[in-house]
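Hey forum,

I'm writing up a methods section and want to include a predicted complex as supplementary material. The small molecule is flavin-adenine dinucleotide. I've pasted the protein sequence and the SMILES. Can someone with a working setup run it? I'll credit the forum in the acknowledgements.
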Amino acid sequence: MVVVIGAGAAGLVAATFARSTGQPVRLLERTSDGGRKILISGGGRCNILPSSLQPERFITDSPAHLMRGLLRSWPLTEQRTFFENEVGIPLALESDTGKLFPKSNRARDVRDGLVDLATRRGVEIQYDTTVNGLRRSPGEGWQIETSRGPLTATAVILATGGLSVPQTGSDGTGLRIAQDLGHGMHPFYPALTPLTGGMPGGADLAGISLPVRIRAKGDGRTRETAGGFLFTHRGYSGPSVLDISDMVTKTTSEVFLRVSWTDRTESQWRDEIAATTGRVASVVARHLPERLAEALCADAGLPPDRRGPELRREERLALIERLTAYALPLTGNEGYKRAEVTGGGVALTDIHSRTLESVRHPGLFMCGEMLDAFGPIGGYNFAWAWATGRLAGLAAGRMG
Ligand SMILES: Cc1cc2nc3c(=O)[nH]c(=O)nc-3n(C[C@H](O)[C@H](O)[C@H](O)COP(=O)(O)OP(=O)(O)OC[C@H]3O[C@@H](n4cnc5c(N)ncnc54)[C@H](O)[C@@H]3O)c2cc1C
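Reply by user p_vandermeer:
Happy to help. Structure tokens for the complex are below, copy them as they are.
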């Protein structure tokens, strides 16, 4: 028998594919219904896949070719076909973001569809069952310690996720189990998590969102992201912030984020400001939400009614810097409580890249978020969970 631990995105797919090999499969899940991260994903709409995927946007401390090989194991077009034809969920493209969502825009359809498919294929799902330990049986196979007593299995798939949003069921037990069994781990950190900090000019801008470009520098690295930016009550969120947040959470050294609020260059701003005889803030507000325009002018030290001809040189320089390279004040981040994924995890060098079987323990497979790789916002992380879940399921089923 194959036992899959964790009925999240990766575990549901792993169990279905393990069952497709003809083996009996049992799926153990600690919550009463499983797939809770799928339910809250994509703002309740579930961004199930990206329409195209750039593997170089994944982050891993393991050799990148191992991560790329795993992604290639199930091409995006085949993943899409699986969801549309086998799970029975028609998908729709959101053309401005390139994200794929269920046509119904209901994440619940994805979770329920995956549970239904696994059940139809003959997977036995056991909810309200927490796995606390795993050890090799004296003979072949594995002994699994669960909250409902011990179980034995020929092959085990660990699909317990990482540490993000623990109330969905993933509290890191599976990572601890993998570590206790001697697997190499890359240090964990919250990723795709909102950042905290103050507002330009001390204004309350919560709720304002706009497309921006962010350049991050720190820890000897620079990286740029582009996309939506959202002012929250505690700081900043939106894809451009989430995608760069690991630069902040991963290191203890200082990281500097500079934001360009529009795609306008310094000289475009300079020319337009020089040409105005009216209020400078009104020129800025032609291109930015008004409250943000006022706040940036205040942050640059301009009196609210400063007019173009009165603008001093140092005021102009300060304003243009805030418009094109605003130094975002950072106080911290919202951690695992709000992180969409966990960075770090089981070293990809400790699993066979064609099967996801542990190199240390034959018959043990690992998949999903607990592995050392994550992608940006946009359906990348489900693509990872589906692809690695399928690969582990097929390989475990062949030996189960
Ligand atoms: C708010 C939010 C929004 C997101 N939106 C998107 C999105 O739109 N698109 C995208 O691609 N990604 C999104 N993600 C990321 C995505 O949800 C994860 O990458 C994905 O769910 C990881 O799948 P997983 O199966 O590895 O882990 P999980 O989904 O975390 O599943 C792990 C499962 O294992 C169970 N479990 C854990 N420990 C035990 C144990 N000891 N015994 C028994 N069961 C156990 C848990 O209860 C859980 O059901 C989002 C994440 C969050 C938090």
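Some notes you might quote in the supplement: The chain has a mean pLDDT of 96. DSSP finds 14 helices and 20 strands in the chain.
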